[in-house]
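G., the chain you wanted modeled:
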Amino acid sequence: MSDAKASKTGKRYVTGEAPHWRAALTSSEYQWQAVLSLVPAWLLYLLTDRQRAFWILAVSLCCALAVAYLSARSFGRKSCFSDGSAVLTAMLFAYASQWMPRPVSAAGAAWSMFFALLVAKDCFGGWGQNIFHPALIGVAALAAFEKDGSVARAAQSGIQEGAFVLRSAVIAAGGIYLVVKRGISWRPLVSFMICILAVSFISVRLQAQLRWWDPVVLFGAIYFVSDGPTSPIAPWAKVCYGFLCGLLAALLLVWGSLFEALSCAVLTMNAVTPLLDRYLRLGLLRARPRSILE
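Predicted structure as tokens:
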């Protein structure tokens, strides 16, 4: 846009280096769609474990909004709540807390939200420029904060089989909603699930621990592995990324719990994302412009 036209409209458009990508949703719309997809899972969680679920959700939301406000003031930003990043991060972290060994304290939630929103997101320039998944960084920060150093040793033996299957179905429904609305890409999601199925079929030892219908697997595949900003852009890179996340999670499962293995696998692959985009961008620049969510 020319300077004369910009002066009349009062707007200036600042762009980064080429290539530029188009997407069906804006960053704010993507995050609010993800929040909406989490509502049924959260309602079921509140019904099955009302006291713990309400406490961790309220504490995480309050801490996340407070950190987002202070971060916006520190970096000189006008809006800190409208993009939905603080709400989404708090809901993901709070929902994942059911796989932690004990209820998260208010101090632990504040510590986790500080690292998730300020260190892992805002210090990199905000949502879309972060390298690592903010909610998983919050989980890792909580592991360092807790004295026992464990994040997800709790077993789900207390959950009845019916509630277990229903929880998986509700999480899967949220994932289908996001795929239909093009809130997430189907490529890393499908390749991750294929890898989980293949590993559980090949390894008899991991069949009992690594089940594709497990809520941990479905939740991680939809909201962690398929996260737009921290996953690759190139189509083949997305496929490779999802498959490697599943393979690494299966390998790490030998030394830890399912949620620990999945979290470490995703954070490790977040660091590898730029390399996958660089070496597996087959046809990415020669074809028509693609959405980052295709």
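DSSP finds eleven helices and no strands in the chain.

Shout if anything looks off.
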